[in-house]
């Protein structure tokens, strides 16, 4: 068994001390030892800034865009090795495509945005000249300049490729180097992609660093020119947000956390309408893709009381047909959770929901002694969602969702907002009036809303798919942060300054 190396200060290096083991999600076999005790995190940060940061900041936006495109092309050529490693994490080929080629596609998107919409300069004028005097001799403009620090990206286990690349693209376009801290459970895939990036020779030395294992005292060495992002559980994110050094130095912290996302069936939809079948398909897909290990997965299924039986019957019928097993086997539609620890966590969350009063309609119990980290598609029912706060607070991060009834439109909106802030929500309806009412009543609690009907379903990208052009994030429990959103996210890694001067002195 090999030790998974970190890439710090321009060199691959292994740590020491007690190691964590990465296991194969399907077979349970031990694959890698991981520890990062030992490397000098202060030196790693200095190297990233002094070598990578300085090199990136001398490049224009057009040159940085070309760099992103070169990296994306190289990774696409290497994709087969990433798919092979992704299979170790329990992912199906379709799951891996979203992670690997979806992430590479995000690089291509940002390369295109930068080359088309940003200046061939290192200074980004954000707006037009703003006159400040009657004679027009004094004016102002907002400009964006690169920060002189490093971006520390602490990522989740579920998307080891996309989760890194969707942050790297705007970071590099902004002219900042990055230190990547992947979740240990799938760090071998992130490490393979980072190695491919380093070996490509497309990025300056120090532009990318990798920590496999714990981050040690890295956060203690950051200052106000640095940026920290976090993707993962709400509980861990809240702990990091209050790190004394981050608070003392007002270091920007962007958090994207798991949330209790919902899918609502409009009161206008009956089983005879095409929207009903679309609703069932959307829920089943979101429950089973990545074995439910998605921060945007549908956790709460909100349905008119009159349609509860029809919806539960249809969902159970479809979920019964989902074959769970080794994705390498023909006919398997859903793979495993990432490891046995995650399976245990999901089981404990399901048990808590049952104890809170939820009824098991399908699944609900895994074989915790099995080598593979499999968990069956699980559908719960909560008859009293107003009196059961657990269904809006406890997330089983697996193929688990809870069905619940609503009385009327306002009740549906109340339940949709009850998650305390969500990344994504979907309303399935054929009514424009209902759609507008839902947006007005639910948008403030959601980072993204999809209105799904027969017309939009033809080309819909789905409830859970983040797109590089659109913001990804959400209020409250979802973290209160924003990622992606086209060039919006580049600005998170830059400093906005209002510059006032005589017009003739202005260099746009």
UniProtKB/TrEMBL annotation:
Pfam families: Aldedh. Coiled coil: none annotated. SUPFAM superfamilies: ALDH-like. Residues 460-485 are annotated as: Disordered. Residues 473-484 have a biased composition (Gly residues). Gene3D superfamilies: Aldehyde Dehydrogenase, Chain A, domain 1, Aldehyde Dehydrogenase, Chain A, domain 2. Keywords: Oxidoreductase. Residues 20-496 form the Aldehyde dehydrogenase domain. GO terms for molecular function: oxidoreductase activity, acting on the aldehyde or oxo group of donors, NAD or NADP as acceptor. NCBIfam families: PaaN-DH (TIGR02278), PRK11903.1 (NF008868). This is Aldehyde dehydrogenase domain-containing protein. It comes from Klebsiella pneumoniae. The lineage of its organism: Bacteria, Pseudomonadati, Pseudomonadota, Gammaproteobacteria, Enterobacterales.
């Amino acid at each position: 068994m090999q030790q998974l190396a970190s890439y710090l200060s321009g060199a691959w290096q292994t740590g020491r001390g007690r190691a964590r083991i990465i296991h194969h999600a399907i077979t349970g076999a031990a694959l890698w030892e991981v520890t990062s005790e030992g490397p000098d995190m202060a030196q790693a940060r200095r190297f990233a800034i002094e070598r990578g940061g300085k090199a990136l900041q001398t490049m224009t936006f057009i040159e940085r865009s070309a760099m992103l495109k070169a990296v994306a092309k190289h990774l696409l050529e290497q994709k087969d090795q990433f798919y092979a490693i992704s299979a170790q994490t329990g992912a199906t080929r379709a799951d891996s495509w979203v992670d690997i080629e979806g992430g590479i596609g995000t690089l291509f998107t940002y390369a295109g945005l930068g080359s088309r919409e940003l200046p061939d300069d290192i200074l980004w004028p954000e707006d037009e000249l703003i006159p400040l005097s009657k004679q027009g001799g004094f004016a102002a403009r907002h400009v964006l300049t690169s920060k002189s620090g490093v971006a520390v990206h602490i990522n989740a286990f579920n998307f080891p490729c996309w989760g890194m690349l969707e942050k790297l693209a705007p970071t590099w376009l902004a002219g900042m180097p990055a230190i990547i801290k992947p979740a240990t459970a799938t760090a071998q895939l992130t490490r393979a992609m980072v190695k491919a990036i380093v070996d490509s020779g497309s990025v300056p030395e120090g532009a990318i660093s990798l920590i496999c294992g714990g981050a040690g005292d890295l956060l203690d060495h950051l200052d106000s020119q640095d940026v920290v992002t976090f993707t993962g559980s709400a509980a861990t994110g809240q702990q990091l947000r209050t790190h004394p050094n981050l608070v003392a130095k007002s270091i920007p912290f962007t958090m994207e956390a798991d949330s209790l996302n919902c899918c609502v069936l409009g009161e206008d939809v009956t089983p005879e309408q095409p929207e009903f079948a679309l609703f069932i398909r959307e829920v089943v897909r979101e429950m089973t893709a990545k074995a439910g290990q998605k921060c945007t997965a549908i956790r709460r299924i909100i349905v008119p009381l009159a349609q509860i039986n029809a919806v539960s019957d249809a969902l159970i019928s479809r979920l019964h047909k989902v074959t769970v097993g080794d994705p390498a086997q023909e006919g398997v539609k859903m793979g495993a959770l990432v490891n046995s620890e995650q399976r245990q966590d999901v089981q404990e969350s399901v048990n808590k929901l049952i104890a809170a009063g939820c009824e098991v309609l399908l699944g609900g119990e895994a074989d915790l002694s099995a080598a593979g980290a499999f968990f069956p598609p699980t559908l719960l029912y909560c008859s009293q969602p107003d009196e059961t706060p657990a269904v809006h607070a406890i997330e089983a991060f697996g193929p688990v969702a809870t069905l619940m009834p609503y009385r009327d439109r306002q009740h549906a909106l109340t339940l949709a907002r009850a998650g305390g802030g969500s990344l994504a929500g979907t309303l399935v309806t054929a009514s424009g009036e209902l759609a507008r009412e839902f947006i007005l009543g639910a948008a403030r609690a959601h980072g993204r809303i999809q209105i799904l009907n027969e017309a939009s379903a033809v080309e819909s990208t789905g409830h859970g798919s983040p797109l590089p052009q659109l913001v990804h994030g959400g209020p409250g429990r979802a973290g209160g942060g924003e990622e992606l959103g086209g060039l919006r996210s580049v600005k998170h890694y830059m400093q906005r300054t209002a510059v006032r001067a005589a017009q003739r002195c202005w260099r746009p």
